[in-house]
Amino acid sequence: MRLERDIERSAVAAMRKRGISAPKFVSPGRRSAPDRLVLPGNGLCLFLEFKRPGEKPTPLQELEHKRLREAGYTVGVPTSTEEAMSIIEEFMMEHGRGAKVRND
Q1: What are residue 36's DSSP bridge partners?
Q2: What are 47-63's pLDDT values in tens digits?
Q3: Which of 10, 41, 42, 83 is exposed most, by the fewest CB atoms within 10 A?
């Protein structure tokens, strides 16, 4: 089974290849912050919390995700590179950036 960091690293490389910025998201004093802030362009942003297949966010992470969603942000929890790219593609389609994100 792949480690969370390997899934995250692979997904970030796939995003970079497609011109999508995904800096590591660090929020001092908040261990429950999502892993990445994804910036696909046009002023859009979403958060990704990477997990291994079958793993779920911790209760503190779930609370942080809820807070972010209530503030109007999108938070995805992918367990693979393909799932991360699918979340980004869906997000872009929903926000008028219909360019398909390739998964090659």
Answers
A1: 24, 48
A2: 999 999 999 999 999 99
A3: 42
Q: 3-state class of 84 per DSSP?
A: helix
Residue type, 12: V
Q: 10 Å Cβ neighbour count for 85?
A: 20
Can you read off the two tokens belonging to residue 60?
């503190």
DSSP state of 49: -
Indicate the residue type of 93: M
- The long-range contacts involving 27-33, CB below 8 angstroms and separated by at least 24 positions, are 30/64, 31/60, 32/58, 32/60, 32/61, 32/63, 32/64, 33/64
Token code pair at residue 35: 């892993």
User: Coil, strand, or helix at residue 83?
Assistant: helix
